[in-house]
Write a structure and sequence with these properties.
alpha/beta, 6 helices, 240 residues, 31% helix
């Protein structure tokens, strides 16, 4: 998989050198390319924003640098992947479609994703119009019902959610099957050894007996019941 990120703050992406995502990069399962938006601003101050037309607070990102940057990124990717390659261009945006586990699964099957990290009040709408006219596939994705300072934090989260689903990234693929949202529900409670643990306050806390029974049907039934109960309590909106 190839991922390109256009941003003003490439340092934000440093955590992608760590853990399983970093290993995927070293193993050749993920190619990550970070591009500085200011490289596509050609005035003396490398300006990428201006005041909003019609008035209002804050600054809006200019269309010129964005259009040039994304065109250049597509050209560079095609040089590596082939002339017919076409990326999915994702704009993290609180006004976008919610990013969910189903989104991560679908995008993990894409060979090429370009993330465009907006800042300030957002990106000039004409950038999206330009991409549509060029036949680009574009998605606006929201990490949640809140606003961040920019798209970089969302890109970190989305990249980890997507790349961990790429075959070979997670060593034991079975661990991806029974986890929260894998089947639309929240995951059941988890326990490890010792079976009986004394907490710092002296309380003895035991693993549920059913998990020690060795009866796999009983264990599966208990886990399904717990998953449903946890979802009903914490995320009733998922039950439908």
């Amino acid at each position: 998989m190839r991922i390109d990120v256009v941003t003003l703050f490439g340092e934000y992406l440093a955590p992608l050198e760590l853990s399983l995502i970093g290993k995927a990069r070293r193993d050749g399962l993920l190619g990550l390319h970070v591009h500085d938006l200011r490289d596509f601003a050609h005035d003396r101050h490398r300006t990428v924003d201006d005041t909003p037309v019609g008035g209002g607070a804050g600054m809006v990102m200019k269309p010129g640098p964005w259009a040039e940057a994304l065109d250049a990124v597509v050209a560079a990717g095609r040089a590596e992947l082939g002339e017919g390659a076409e990326p999915l261009i994702v704009f993290p945006n609180p006004a976008g479609t919610p990013f969910a586990q189903a989104t991560a699964h679908a995008w993990s099957e894409r060979p090429w994703i370009v993330f465009a990290c907006g800042r300030y009040e957002g990106i000039d709408e004409r950038v999206y119009e330009h991409l549509a006219d060029a036949g680009r596939e574009v998605a606006l994705a929201s990490l949640g019902d809140y606003v961040l300072n920019g798209g970089e934090v969302a890109v970190l989260a989305m990249t980890e959610a997507i790349v961990r689903l790429v075959p070979g990234v997670v060593g034991n693929a079975a661990s991806l099957v029974e986890e929260s949202h894998s089947d639309g529900l929240l995951e059941y409670p988890l326990y490890t050894k010792p079976a009986s643990w004394t907490a710092p306050d002296g309380t003895v806390r035991d693993v549920p007996e059913v998990l020690l029974s060795g009866n796999h049907e009983r264990i599966a039934a208990w886990r399904a019941e717990q998953s449903l109960a946890r979802t009903r309590e914490r995320r009733p909106d998922l039950l439908a």
